[in-house]
Amino acid sequence: MKKVLITGAASGLGRAMALRYAREGAHICIADINMEGAAETLSMVENAGGKGWIHELDVRSEEAWNQLHREVVSRWNGIDIVINNAGVATGDRIEDGDWAWWDWIIDINLKGVALGCRTFTPMMKQQGHGAFVNVASLAGLLKAPSMSSYNATKAAVVALSETMHFELMPYGIGVTALCPGFFRTNLNHGMKTSDPDMLKFVDKVFEASALDADDIAEAAYKAVLKNEKICNPHPAGRRAYFFKKYVPFLFNKGMLKMAEGLKKREQQRKSFATGDSQSVMGNGKA
Predict the structure, then answer these.
(1) Which CATH number describes the domain made up of 3-246?
(2) pTM score
(3) Fewer CB in a 10 Å sphere around the end CB: N or C, the chain?
(4) How do residues 101-122 score in pLDDT, each as one tens digit?
């Protein structure tokens, strides 16, 4: 019976991955700060044929990870797969948004993943086997404009995972960076942005996606079996990454076109705001 730890498993992709492993009869630790959602996932896991337990975890806390490690030792005395899935989103130009949002997203998306890896690597080395899945994003490979802090954390997760992939291979430990594009999930619900149009754009793209969380979970499951270094599950994402690597002038042209469109939208928004302000002032004088 596989022993699988999944962070952020109270909903979305984390829940989908828990259910994918549950169908294989796995024993799953559902780690999240949302205990109500974690309990719902546990019930679904058991109905799907798996077993499990829930653990309250703030991925930003080293002590919280150490406590989870102690419970894993007590319950399982070993582990097969750690899926560092917990993450948050931001969407802003480099000069916009609160600076505190950078600390927030780095602490969760990057340092939270690194802490998970640091915590369980010694156990896997001692066993001589194991696997990590670090959930990054297509954004970490392509780095589109107007998502600077999010792109930075996801690119860092890719870099961390690629480093670990080779570093840990001699110990029989696999490491995969999961890099999905937009898909139907709840990541946008807690997204921080100062751009009033960003959430509308993200909602629209999410709804238009041909893949959902179950599709991504299936791709991740297969990637672990193959010990893939990078799992890029979206066909459109694979094409875009191909163009970036092998036809860069076309990729760069597309990115510039996107940036020009964002510039035009920003200018229109500022023009509207200025005009609206002047209208209000004019009405006040009247």
Answers:
(1) 3.40.50.720
(2) 0.88
(3) C
(4) 999 999 999 999 999 999 999 9
